[in-house]
Amino acid sequence: MKIFSQVIKPFIHLCNRFSSCKGGEEGFKVAIAGASGGIGQPLSMLMKMNPFVKELSLFDLQHTPGVAADLSHIETLCKVGPDQIYKALKDANVIIVPAGVPRKPGMTRDDLFNVNANIVKELAEAAAEVAPKALIAIITNPVNSVVPIVCEVMKKADKFDPKRIFGVTTLDIVRSNTFVAEALKINPKEVNVPVIGGHAGNTIIPLLSRSTPRVSFSDEQIIAMTKRIQNAGTEVVEAKAGAGSATLSMAYAAARFANSLMRGLRGEQNVIECSYVASDCGGASYFATPLVLGKDGVKENLGLGELNDFEKKEVEAAIPVLIENIQAGVDFVNNFK
Fold first, then answer.
1. Which of 141, 148, 161, 284 would bridge with 329, disulfide CB 3.0–4.6 Å?
2. What is the per-residue pLDDT for 12?
3. Known catalytic residues?
4. Domain topology for 171-330
5. Residues 6 or more apart whose Cβ sits within 8 Å of residue 33
């Protein structure tokens, strides 16, 4: 019951709030690469429940048929498709990638790079071949480096479209909304905090000055809140004591982002989410900013917007880290043997 109240019930509310279609009426094919993992399984369930999804294809290196069989018993019109990588990705409208090794205590996101980079490279190569027009939402860490890997693979295949490749940073927004709501003692559904930059450590930059509703924290509170948001992933890793990293909250955040991608594909207006994309807005070649989503992915990049002095300093500190992270991804593909 606790999982239902914390994860499933809020997502049902999210779908009901934004959806006017019934399952199968105007649906999309969604493929999840990494479907049997700690994020993949709850994410697959949430996608099976989403009324925008008419076909859900799953891929992972093991246990995928069991996950698919389990999901197929859920009473929605969405059908569960094949588990082979090329068949799963073929002609998908949206591809969500939680594949890879999770972070463990003492590990940074950068420690994951050598393991996860090759996994994502192979998935990107398959997507370039069988689903070049898909919107690709990347969860695999380190996102700051993995998104450039996918883009470089697409460039080599002459299939690159910067409007269609996203690093999912939604968990940073979800956490910011939750933590601010806790401080203000209000409903987190009433809070919206844009988060820009990247998706690791000090590259995560919550724009508390642009929070809705407006907040009036002291300088000390702003610093403390910013640091908590930036280190929230480590908070979960340590709390799980070796049992993994954020899975349920990440699955919820990814489902929210995928829902917004599909709302954009349906032609809904003013669908806005923050995401880490190829960009010339932030001083690095990839940067997370608020985006207007549409039928081709990114309809408009809203940029950094107005920042206060504290936020400007946070951006300045993040840029060299992002540049280094991005270059690691680019070099991995260009130097791959």
1. 148
2. 53
3. 199
4. L-2-Hydroxyisocaproate Dehydrogenase; Chain A, domain 2 (3.90.110)
5. 59, 60, 85, 88, 89, 95, 96, 97, 98, 99, 123
